[in-house]
Write a structure and sequence with these properties.
Layout: H1 8-19, E1 32-36, H2 41-57, E2 60-67, E3 70-72, E4 76-78, H3 83-106, E5 111-117, H4 121-130, E6 136-140, H5 154-162, E7 167-170
Length: about 170
Amino acid sequence: MDSKLPDSFSFMRIFYLFLIGINMGACMSFNNILVAYDSSSFSNRAFKSALDIAESNKSKITIASVLTGVYQPSIGFTMKYSEEMLKKYTKTLQKTFSTLESVAKKKNIKISLKLLQNPSVSKAIVNYVHSHKFDLVVIGSHGRTGLNKIILGSVANSVTQKVKCPIMVVK
């Protein structure tokens, strides 16, 4: 093996350091990061990865969560929520956000929360990314729907195909 070529571990480490913008003067910078968040273990890992990147780049993070709608037997699928249901969801989301915010605050990272409403999670995320200037989207490889796709979840797959900025998919 040629001594000028790094072994696979070194190569992966260099690639990761390049990605987070600290590779020996790399000029790639992520100032505005979006994390697609659904409270799954994959989105929690995506948030932690985004924190690492934000810390090294002094970035701000936007947490986007999507309210998709509910099935009501009398009318079918609808985006209309009862006020009680919307309050309950908002309260749960605020509690989760407070936890994420306290973790970010310890690292001196500003975060904000955006609640999106759309029957399609991927469309909501893609539309939001296209209408704002994000330098990076961080998304879990699978979400609350579980491992319904063998390699990549349907939302992550759709977002990676339609968003133009860099995307980090976290397993």
